[in-house]
Amino acid sequence: MLRIPFPEYLKEINSKVKEFLEKKEFKVGEMNHVLINEYKPGQGIMAHTDGPAYSPVVATISTGGGQLLNIRTKENKEIIHSVYLEPGALSVLHGALYSELHEIEENLSDDISRASNFHSLSSPLENGNFLISRQTRISFTFRNVRSTRFLPKALLKTLNFDSVS
Length: 165
Ligand SMILES: O=C(O)CCC(=O)C(=O)O
Ligand SMILES: [Fe+2]
Description:
alpha+beta, four-stranded antiparallel beta sheet, 12 strands, binds 2-oxoglutaric acid, oxidoreductase
């Protein structure tokens, strides 16, 4: 992977993620890769694992709307855990959560009563029921890529990057 510096706003989010992971004593290198996903209402991501490249930890910040993330077993695809990723939340996949499958269903709303973090959510209930309509969610998933290379300084300058981080 070729390295280009994160823009300032990502550096700021990344340092907060780093601070949290260090406090929780996750054994992970520098989060030097970020994937930004946008989900419109009705969109999701099929059940998958992030594979060995980013093991053992990925950390995701949610912004915009919320979405329910399911963890399914690889063995029989049964849902063993659901967590509502609300705006502002940091979610961390590690251990069994990393190695099993995760998915976001293609729904227009989420039933947050299914969420294991239901009692600690700050999202208000709509009309007193547990279905929360989706709004566009943008997620920032931070990962550690072990093998990276810097671009030559001259090229970074041409591309308008002043420093490498
Ligand atoms: O957007 C999310 O919260 C999950 C994204 C994800 O699982 C992925 O990009 O591999
Ligand atoms: Fe993923």
